[in-house]
Amino acid sequence: MHFRKLEKSVNPIYDTNNIFAKIIAGEAPCVKVYEDDLTLAFMDIMPQKDGHVLVVPKEQAVTIYDLSAEAAQACMLTVQKIGKALERAMGVTGSTIFQHNGSSAGQTVGHFHFHVFPGPLLVIKDHGVQFEEVGKLKEIAALIIAQLESPHA
Question: Which residues carry out catalysis (predicted)?
Answer without folding.
Answer: 113 (tele-amp-histidine intermediate)
